[in-house]
């Protein structure tokens, strides 16, 4: 049956099974995720803004980074040192727009890197207006009795602790009009059986968004979360899902396919821009149709 134009605009076929070691390279995926390189057109929504995007090398963070640069922002991206190849691609794309792209490799499991990353970004960019805390780790495990303390710690360190440390440091730089955006997940409100630890961390991010919106409102700093559904990215093929779930990944959504990172970029731009001046403490679902509440 033919879908609507929108449903067909992005890849809607089955995916080949494919496994990479975490954190993986999107440039080695089939198909390569669409992060908007060929499609995103800016319209000066973020001119003169300085942004740090974690996990900006690939997937959703890369789509946000490309969009921010095309909207006129200077950007810094952080990523795991094993992702240098993807990060270099992003740097080349951003610099083609005439914007600065600061590269900040490091492991967010290490205490200290999150604060160091924010300080380095602000120093290199000459300030900070936008903080997109998007880096995340997801490893599936069907049985809680097999959940290792190492996995539990890694997931919380990257998805929760580093987010708190980065915000603590960023508040030394963000001023009135500053915007923080967290990439949470539909898992934060509708957890799956095989993603116990991951889903807990994504709930933490939603809670943090709401409590900090209340705390930071008086400073004129906004904070919002994006809650994606199934998006075709490296995270999913590096242990995020069992291989048997890869071929039909996303096909159970109302739009019957996985989303591509490029389809999220406009929301990251909106939440960063001054057009969102009265939007804070909100969770924005981009799920292909599954309700987030
Ligand atoms: P991705 O693999 O392309 O990006 C995740 C990034 O996190 C990596 O590129 C890496 O740079 C960073 N990262 C992970 N572990 C790190 C570590 N130890 N140190 C430093 N950086 C580290 O995948 P993505 O799907 O674009 O993920 C971005 C965010 O989206 C994550 O927070 C993820 O939880 C969230 N999310 C993804 C989906 C999906 O279906 N893909 C759905 C909901 C939420
Ligand atoms: Mg990556």
UniProtKB/TrEMBL annotation:
InterPro entries: NAD(P)-bd_dom_sf, SDR_fam. One of its GO terms (molecular function) is oxidoreductase activity, acting on CH-OH group of donors. It comes from the Bacteria. Keywords: Oxidoreductase. Belongs to the short-chain dehydrogenases/reductases (SDR) family. PANTHER family: NADPH-DEPENDENT ALDEHYDE REDUCTASE 1, CHLOROPLASTIC, NADPH-DEPENDENT ALDEHYDE REDUCTASE-LIKE PROTEIN, CHLOROPLASTIC-RELATED. This is Oxidoreductase, short-chain dehydrogenase/reductase. It comes from Listeria aquatica FSL S10-1188.
């Amino acid at each position: 049956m033919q879908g609507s134009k929108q449903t067909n605009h992005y890849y809607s076929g089955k995916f080949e099974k494919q496994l990479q070691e975490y954190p993986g390279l999107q440039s080695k995926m089939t198909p390569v995720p669409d992060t908007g390189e060929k499609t995103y057109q800016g319209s000066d929504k973020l001119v003169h803004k300085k942004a740090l995007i974690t996990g900006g090398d690939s997937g959703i963070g890369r789509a946000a980074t490309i969009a921010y640069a095309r909207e006129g922002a200077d950007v810094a991206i952080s990523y795991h040192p094993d992702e240098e190849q993807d990060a270099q691609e992003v740097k080349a794309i951003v610099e083609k727009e005439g914007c600065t792209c600061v590269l900040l490799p490091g492991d967010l499991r290490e205490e200290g890197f999150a604060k160091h990353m924010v300080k380095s970004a602000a120093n290199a960019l000459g300030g900070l207006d936008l903080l997109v805390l998007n880096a995340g780790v997801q490893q599936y495990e069907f049985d809680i009795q097999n959940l290792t303390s190492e996995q539990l710690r890694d997931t919380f360190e990257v998805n929760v602790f580093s987010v708190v440390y980065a915000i603590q440091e960023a508040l030394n730089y963000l001023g009135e009009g500053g915007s923080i955006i967290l990439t949470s997940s539909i898992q934060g409100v509708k957890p799956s059986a095989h993603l116990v630890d991951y889903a807990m961390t994504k709930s933490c991010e939603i809670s943090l968004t709401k409590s900090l919106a209340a705390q930071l409102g008086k400073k004129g700093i906004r904070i919002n979360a994006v809650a994606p559904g199934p998006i075709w990215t490296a995270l999913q093929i590096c242990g995020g899902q069992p291989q048997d779930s890869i071929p039909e990944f996303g096909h159970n959504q109302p739009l019957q396919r996985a989303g591509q990172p490029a389809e999220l970029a406009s929301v990251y731009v909106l939440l960063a821009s001054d057009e969102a001046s009265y939007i804070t403490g909100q969770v924005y679902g981009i799920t292909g149709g599954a309700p987030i509440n």
